[in-house]
Automatic annotation (TrEMBL):
Residues 789-812, 1210-1231, 1269-1311 are annotated as: Disordered. It comes from Vanessa tameamea (Kamehameha butterfly). Residues 1277-1286 have a biased composition (Pro residues). The lineage of its organism: Eukaryota, Metazoa, Ecdysozoa, Arthropoda, Hexapoda. It catalyses: ATP + H2O + phospholipidSide 1 = ADP + phosphate + phospholipidSide 2. This is Phospholipid-transporting ATPase. The keyword Magnesium applies. It is found in: Membrane.
Length: 1311
């Protein structure tokens, strides 16, 4: 990858020198190469080469590869025709709507087919039917679809208008003018104020904060809610908010062209004969929100569709369901079948006219267009008959099919919108189907790709539990039983109102900790002092209220907890920290901050008070434990480790806290070497890390914190149910690896009894290749020696750094394996491939659905999971490693991709779509999820805290992730089941109706004469049979919604399209052809040469047509009654009403309007012959159908049939127990629960004073330190002995483990 990136740069340089340009690379490879540049951190940067413009770097070698902008100079910038800030996501305008929409609709094969048919019907010589029979349905379909498309596009226009009409303050001639976002152009200088969205991608010029700093929230871009810091050039920061200076700013910017790389920006600024380098730290991207910064100014670099947000949005694709694609294929087959019948009738007509017809011209004269010569005349007649039969039998592909499909989908969408069980009362948000064309696809989802922040979690960090001095706090214990009480919404939190700085939203429930604070417990005081001192939070007074600016939500939660317990962080300067302990002020001298980074996994502060120097540190438990003082606090360490395992098992984010005293002389020597390392020009980071290692040793453990990254309600249960339904769930997030893994355990995507959890974090291509090979080998070993999978094997993650090793199982894993024991007990439905006679086809023990693919078999049974970093994913998506990557991930039950860009999310979705041909669903709540939502077959947006971009781009919107299981397992499954049943019946009834003409052709000389009345042909699909099948498609249920959720395996048939496919279509059409043959031959044989008792002749064409039509309607009614499982009032009205309406309309048409078939049906109904014929025909048609269904349901009943039988036979049985018990209470883990959403660099900003509004004088700070009473009392490093009896929460911390996934009792469905 790196070599190829170098090659691209050399090719660009060669192009500048006049050499021939290389052909452009494919878009996919180009994107991969651009992403590859991000991971080339281990190579030294080549010296930059000057071009003919001495202010440009080597990267910008031609006008095609650079963007040139002059600030406040619209005339200069206009020559480059840069995109303005107008956003357009709509497809049509008033002028283009009609032609573009018709063009789109006629791209559907069926619409084009009926258009051609309509043209043929306009030719009188070949048409035996009026054109109205095709024109009205076709116009209806086009109009209905056009109205729906117009409505959808109108909503897009409204959303675009809302964004484009937002107001922005722009400098015009040195004065601020308020303009629409759409009017902002590249080169404009704009002013942003606190809590405002950034209107475009801008280069930061100045801000209200010291040294040109500003803070932004990038949740819309990468899903991270922690604040990020940006800093402008000091030279431009001097302009402040002087509108005159900023309006006169004429700097020239030369930068990269628009791209979708969120973390990369290269450019130069030329101003006042100086050249300044620009990077991503000086850029504010569209979609960010300005936080904790009063104001800032910036010059627009990218606007509108060129912004990185829009570059990552992806293109809106026309989505079609798999059933739509199958119908297109089937229509081709039906048309070929129709043409074959027409060709046969054409040949037969020519033969009949040649042999017989020419002798009957006195009775059947030939048309004037037909030559008189027999051979030529027969050929011409045969050719005309071809088109006539194409028109007569066109109903084999009825236009009403598409009308009915659109109506059913439209009605199903309203059922989703009206579902009260998907209504979120807290925000008043209901589920919404934003498209009406994809409902049945919801019942065929195989892969769900989910964002984490705001989708699985609530974006809320809460201080949940802690362990101090070997005592666990946070659980509420029943004094009578000694059991831990589950917290509910009705549980009363502690009252902190006696603290004037308490926060009403802070909740803690264990009174033991509050009592320990009040009685002055030394360990507890040290614990909260550390939380109030060891951080990089900045305090701020807003409206007389103390507020904190936290760089990460974890730090905010910890400092907030200390504040509410009486340890209030008040103020900081570059060299002091002021806190308030139980109302008394304490000032500490800040000597050094040892900043956090992803390798160290800890941060420390060194403080001095009353002559005593202390180091406070917090970090990952394994990192802190490795640095604890040897042979010290053994009992405390052991108990704390137990608590850590308990917290990790509950999915809490843990940090260990420790301290150590420092000697004055030793610290002075260390500080001297620290300053030398900080000023080093080479290997500065490595030298600083080594210096930090020296002092962060011999630590004394204080305790651990447990923060809950609050999941949305019902997330673990939803994931468990979707997994049991056979749906693979992948989490794609921009968060850090530790955070993503921690949430994976919280929501049970990852469990401690998995065989292995692989971590792919290699930076170079070879590292990733090697790690994938190790993963594949491990999977093969487990599959070979443990083919049934471990049920209780304990896997542990190994630490990985710099492309280190993947996860390894614990040494005792093999001893804990129960061979042949199922991981979970669930109801499994094997729809096919079953040879066991006893347990026929659906019940099996195990967690995996039956699937023909070996990859699908392996993942659930062996319990693997994989975590992939974003920089490693760049290589995994490269064509060279793509197959190996797929080979590994398809064997994994869970996949988590962290630190991924929006583009990478979309590429992962496209990879699975392309390689697996699987139906995918993407769900997210932020703008960073838009490209993924657009790439998937189904996009679901969550109306969350990150704006509405994901909802606007989605096909369906819900308020909470837990509603996804109801959307899929209930509405999706019902929609798929209904649509499949509708299509099977629809093709059956239309073949039964249409093919009658083919059988009649043998008895009418292949003359294209119809069996039925022309009016009957026109309204058969419109009135007589439309409403019953619509009611079937809208209201049909095989099981209730509660049963669908209780037995997720009911969802399995949609994965392999088992309810409607080519085989089912052929069965339906053959059944229809058989029905048409019986319908025609039995009445024909009865009425041929038939006489009534009074001697009247019954063998006339009109009487035969009326009899066949009546029996056809009776057969259709009986058939749909047999097909209907769930009877509603609408079903009764439509089914029996359609039968009655047939007789009413026939009499109305023939007697009132005077149709040609007047009296035919009346005569037939008065004869006993008709009734005997009808009964005989119905018996021949229905007995085989009923017998087959009864035999099949008894021999191989489906899961739905057995559940319906259980419901009928056990109505008095008690309701089943809840499926998924709480997994939060007692699951224990031996893994680390460390996760800390923090970034390196804030420590240096604090100690340098750049982040401060004012820097106090050193003497003032020292005098304040001397004047205040100290709280550091010299004490030995040995902590006081622990109390003789541990708290009840500690003594009962180990309770029986709950199941890791829902269990289901097979006896409950055993009949």
């Amino acid at each position: 990858m790196c070599a190829r990136s170098e090659a691209v740069e050399l090719e660009v340089l060669g192009a500048e020198g006049g050499e021939a340009r290389v052909p452009p690379r494919p878009l996919r490879l180009s994107l991969l190469e651009l992403l590859g540049k991000l991971v080339r951190r281990d190579q030294p940067t080549a010296p930059r080469r000057r071009t003919r413009h001495n202010h440009r770097f080597r990267t910008f070698v031609s006008c095609e590869n650079e963007r040139r902008i002059k600030a406040n100079n619209r005339e200069y910038n206009a020559q480059f025709r840069y995109a303005n800030n107008y956003i357009k996501t709509s497809k049509y305008s008033i002028i283009t709507f009609l032609p573009l929409n018709l063009l789109e609709q006629f791209q559907r094969l069926a619409n084009f087919y009926f258009l051609c048919l309509l043209v043929l019907q306009l030719i009188p010589a070949i048409s035996s039917l009026t054109p109205i029979t095709t024109a009205i349905p076709l116009i209806g379909v086009l109009a209905l679809t056009a109205v729906k498309d117009a409505y959808d596009d109108f909503q897009r226009h409204q959303n675009d208008s809302q964004v484009n009409h937002r107001r922005a303050k722009t400098l015009r001639n040195g004065k601020l003018v308020e303009e629409k976002w759409a009017s902002v152009q590249v080169g404009d200088v704009i002013r942003l104020e606190n809590d405002q969205f950034v209107a475009a991608d801008i280069l930061l010029l100045s801000s209200s904060e010291p040294n040109g700093l500003c803070y932004i929230e990038t949740a819309e871009l990468d899903g991270e809610t922690n604040l990020k810091c940006r800093q402008c050039l000091l030279e431009t920061a001097a302009m402040g908010q002087d509108d005159a200076q900023l309006g006169a700013f004429d700097g020239e910017i030369v930068c990269e062209t628009p791209n979708n790389l969120l973390n990369k920006f290269d450019g130069t600024l030329s101003w006042r004969d100086q050249h300044f380098s620009l990077d991503n730290d000086k850029i504010l991207l569209r979609g960010c929100v300005l936080r904790n910064t009063s104001w800032c100014y910036g010059v627009v670099v990218f606007a509108g569709k060129d912004t990185k947000l829009m570059q990552n949005s992806g293109k809106t694709k026309f989505k079609r369901t798999s059933i739509d694609r199958l119908l297109n294929f089937l229509i081709i087959g039906i048309v070929l079948f129709l043409l074959s019948m027409c060709v046969f009738c054409t040949v037969a007509c020519g033969v009949w006219e040649w042999l017989v017809g020419r002798y009957f011209q006195v009775y059947l004269p030939w048309d004037t267009l037909v030559p008189a010569e027999p051979a030529s005349g027969a050929i011409v007649i045969a050719l005309l008959v071809f088109f006539s039969y194409a028109i007569v039998m066109n109903t084999v592909v009825p236009i009403s099919l598409y009308v009915s499909v659109e109506v059913i989908r439209f009605a199903q969408s309203f059922l989703i919108n009206w579902d009260e069980k998907m209504y979120y009362e807290k925000t008043g948000t209901a589920a919404k189907a934003r498209t009406t064309t994809l409902n049945e696809e919801l019942g065929q989802i195989q892969y769900v790709f989910s964002d984490k922040t705001g989708t699985l979690t609530q974006n809320i960090m809460t201080f949940n539990k802690c362990s101090i001095g070997g005592l666990c706090y946070g659980d509420i214990v029943d004094e009578n039983t000694g059991e831990t009480i589950e917290l509910t919404d009705s549980t009363e939190p502690l009252d902190f109102s006696d603290n004037p700085e308490y926060e009403p939203e802070f909740k803690f429930f264990d009174a033991k900790l509050q009592k320990a604070v009040r009685r002055g417990d030394r360990n507890v005081y040290d614990f909260f002092r550390l939380l109030a001192l060891c951080h990089t939070v900045m305090p701020e007074q807003k409206n007389g209220r103390l507020e904190y600016q936290a760089q990460s939500p974890d730090e905010s939660a910890l400092v907030s907890a200390a504040r509410n317990f009486g340890f209030v962080f008040r103020e900081r300067s570059p060299n002091t920290i002021t806190i308030e302990v139980m109302g008394k002020t304490e000032v500490y001298e800040l000597l050094c901050i040892l900043d956090f980074n992803n390798v160290r996994k800890r941060m420390s502060v060194i403080l001095k008070k009353d002559g005593e120097i202390r180091l406070y540190t917090k970090g990952a438990d394994n990192v802190i434990y490795d640095r604890l003082k040897r042979s010290h606090q053994e009992e405390v360490r052991s108990k704390t480790q137990e608590h850590l395992n308990k917290f990790a098992g509950e999915g809490l984010r843990t940090l260990a806290l420790a301290w150590r005293p420092l000697e004055e002389r030793g610290f002075a020597e260390w500080k001297r070497r620290h300053q030398a390392a900080a000023l080093a020009l080479r290997d500065r980071d490595e030298r600083l890390d080594a210096i930090y290692e020296e002092i962060e040793t011999d630590l004394i453990l204080i305790g651990v914190t447990a923060i809950e990254d609050k999941l949305q309600d019902g997330v673990p249960e939803t994931i468990a149910n979707l997994s049991m339904a056979g749906i693979k769930i992948w989490v794609l997030t921009g968060d850090k690896q530790e955070t993503a893994i921690n949430i994976g355990y919280s929501c049970q995507l990852l469990t401690d009894d998995m065989a292995e959890v692989f971590v792919i974090d290699g930076v170079a291509h070879d590292d990733v290749d090697r790690q994938l090979a190790k993963c594949r080998d491990s999977i093969r070993v487990v599959n070979t020696f443990l083919p049934h999978g471990p049920s209780e094997a304990k896997g542990s993650r190994s630490e990985t750094a710099n492309g280190g090793a993947v996860a390894r199982p614990s040494p005792g894993r093999a001893a804990n394996v129960k061979l042949n024991a199922p991981a979970v007990s669930v109801v499994t439905f094997r729809w096919e491939h079953n040879t066991l006679a006893h347990d026929s086809n659906e019940y099996a023990s195990g967690g995996a659905a039956h699937a023909p693919d070996s990859h699908e078999h392996g993942d659930d049974s062996n319990g693997f999971a994989i975590v992939v970093n974003g920089h490693s994913l760049v290589h995994c998506l490269h064509p060279k490693l793509e197959e190996k990557f797929l080979d590994v991930v398809l064997h994994c039950r869970s996949v988590i991709c962290c630190r991924v860009t929006p583009l990478q999310k979309a590429m992962v979705v496209e990879l699975i779509k392309k390689s697996r041909k699987a139906v995918t669903l993407a769900i997210g709540d932020g703008a960073n999820d838009v490209s993924m939502i657009k790439a998937a077959h189904i996009g679901v947006g969550i109306s969350g805290q990150e704006g509405m971009q994901a909802v606007l781009a989605s096909d369906y919107s819900i308020a909470q992730f837990r509603f996804l299981q109801r959307l899929l397992l209930v509405h999706g499954r019902w929609s798929y089941y209904r649509m499949c049943k509708f299509l099977r019946y629809f093709f059956y009834k239309n073949f039964a109706f249409t093919v009658c003409h083919f059988w009649f052709a043998f008895f009418c000389g292949f003359s294209a004469q119809t069996v039925f009345d022309e009016m009957f042909i026109s309204v058969y699909n419109l009135f007589y049979t439309s409403l019953p099948v619509l009611a079937l498609g809208v209201f049909e249920q095989d099981v209730s919604d509660a049963t669908s959720l209780q037995f997720p395996k009911l969802y399995a048939p949609g994965h392999t399209s088992q309810l409607f496919n080519k085989t089912e279509f052929i069965k339906s059409t053959l059944h229809g052809c058989f029905t048409s043959l019986v319908l025609f031959l039995i009445p024909y044989g009865t009425y041929k040469d038939g006489l009534a008792p009074d001697g009247k002749i019954l063998s006339d064409h009109m009487l035969l047509g009326s009899v066949v039509a009546t029996i056809l309607i009776i057969d259709n009614t009986t058939q749909i009654a047999l097909d209907t499982t769930y009877w509603t009032v609408f079903n009764h009205i439509t089914i029996w009403g359609s039968l009655v309406s047939y007789f009413v309309l026939d009499y109305f048409y023939n007697y009132v309007i005077r149709g040609p078939y007047v009296g035919s049906l009346t005569v037939a109904l008065t004869q006993a012959t008709f009734w005997f014929t009808a009964v005989l025909t119905m018996m021949i048609l229905m007995v085989p159908v009923v017998s087959w269904r009864l035999a099949w349901s008894r021999r191989r009943p489906t899961l739905a049939e057995r559940l319906r039988a259980r419901t009928r036979w056990r109505r008095a049985a008690a309701a089943p127990a809840p499926r998924t018990p709480s997994a939060r209470r007692a699951r224990r883990s031996v893994r680390s629960g460390y996760a800390f959403a923090h970034q390196e660099g804030f420590g240096r900003l604090i100690t340098s004073g750049k982040i401060m509004r004012r820097i106090p004088h050193a003497d003032a700070a020292l005098s304040a330190l001397a004047s205040l009473p100290g709280k550091f009392h010299p004490r030995s490093s040995t902590p006081p002995p622990s109390p003789p009896s541990a708290s009840p929460s500690a003594s009962h911390s180990a309770s029986p483990p709950s199941p890791r996934a829902p269990k289901q009792d097979l006896d409950s469905v055993d009949l």
